[in-house]
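User:
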Amino acid sequence: MIETDMKDSREIALEILNYFDKNGYIPSKKVEIAFSTLSFESKKFAANLYLGTLRKRVLIDYILMKFLKRPDKLPVAIKNALRIGVFQLYFMDAVPDYAAIKESVALVGVKSFRNLVNAVLRKVAGERVDLNALPLWLKYSHPKWLVEYIKGLPHIGDIKPLLEYNQTPPSDAFVASESELAELEEKGFLFASSDFSDSYILVERGIDDLKLQRIDEMEYILKGMEKEVIRMSGSALSLLNQKPWLFFTLEAETFSREKRKLIQEILEVKHGEFLLMIDSYSLEETRDLVFELNKAGYECADFDSTLKGSLKATEMGYGAYYFPPDAPRPCFITYLKKR
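Assistant: Predicted structure:
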């Protein structure tokens, strides 16, 4: 039964990746319905498989290029079966190589393509790439243009921690009472206290459903400032680890386009002063945005960039940038007042 369930997990992961390639987005409702047929462990496996394959796709495609003559001619489903196989071979230590290859081949219906997937994955398993010898954009599996863009940002020094964070599955933060924690720990859940707030970070899931409400820790901390808080996503550049499909939908022009949308949204805000948090750290959606708002009658005011806690920020004259490990996640915050 477990073996069948894991096979279903791989099939569902493949279907999600195929859907993304054909439609350009992840269908959350369809994913939810598909996952409802799986056991708890198989849900985790399927989620890790499709999200991990998306996170590592730039690197995976580089690896596959070494063994495919014309990858652009392959059907989407075959390319994604290969990607799933490579992800398991390189990044899922709990899956033996023989199982990664066998189960990836089983995802393919046409015999000639099954033979291709089998042969390529065997070569991939036998001829490992030295990841540490690769340039940053490949080692951390980012589009090359994005790494070059981040390198040019004046508010970021060493970009490696940020690139690594973007490749790390997000932590789940919760607010809970001591009695709720004790009850959950009896069911096998493990939590750690956050370094930045009174919330708790989930370390290990237990055997039952977790009925606590997940929070965005940065937003939770910001609301403790006792000022009006407006959160806007913009390009969601800060959320790459949560939404790895953004690696393939973001473009250099996205930031300017989102800046224009943000300006319109902010001009509609009724509050005379407020803390603005943007889920991005692009210059267009932060510095340039604030300069444009300045012309439209807003001014930046000082605020405590530690957010009454232990956070550290890169302060600029127009706001503050936050990045791990000095904050729960990347974002930009400014305090705006209407003149």
